[in-house]
């Protein structure tokens, strides 16, 4: 297989992965060791994400004419590409925590739902709870509010019953 065919295959593979992604981020991986990259990839794989390293020119070709084209401005120097397929905030959190842990590299930016996120916005996004946690919190609020509403109706019914009983006592007292 020649160089051109290999490059075309790399671009094709990148494009295929990016089309399935829920989030994509560009990182500076300068200073990462091979074992650190392997560890990052393992952690990301557990959260349905990949960390790809390809030449910037090949990445630019792969993102051209996609909703990720804005990432091109972030491709300078050694660039790693996070491609997340699962819960986007979990993928982002894994990457941010890893970079913080090893104290190397940084996130340059990301694309989420067609919008370019700065590195600060990406870090804020990474601090959000996962989708499952948010759904659990919403469900908890709904249950709590339902209990409160049921309690209000119960007290209204009890008050109406007491009021009806008092009116009945007064009316039976007048009739006698």
Q: How many strands, what sense, and barrel or not for the largest sheet?
A: 5 strands, antiparallel
The CATH topology annotation of the largest domain reads as Alpha-Beta Plaits
Which bin fits the share of residues in helices?
Answer: 55-70%
Question: How many DSSP helices?
Answer: 6
> Structurally, how many domains make up the residues?
2
CATH homologous superfamily (4th level) name of the largest domain: Ribosomal protein L10, N-terminal RNA-binding domain
Distance between the termini: 109 Å
Give the strand line-up of the largest sheet: 2-3-1-4-5
Any idea of the CATH class of the largest domain?
Alpha Beta
Spans where pLDDT lies below 50 across 5 or more residues: none
Gyration radius over CA: 28 Å
Number of strands: 5
> What oligomerization state is this entry in?
single chain
Q: Structural class of the secondary elements?
A: alpha+beta
Description of the molecule:
The protein is built from 6 helices and 5 strands; from the N terminus they run αβαβαβαββαα. With 176 residues, it is of the alpha+beta class. The chain folds into 2 domains: 3-128, 2-Layer Sandwich (Alpha-Beta Plaits), CATH 3.30.70; 129-176. It has a 5-stranded antiparallel β-sheet with strand order 2-3-1-4-5, sandwiched between helices. A hairpin with a 2-residue loop joins strand 4 (106-112) and strand 5 (115-118). It starts with a helix and ends with a helix.
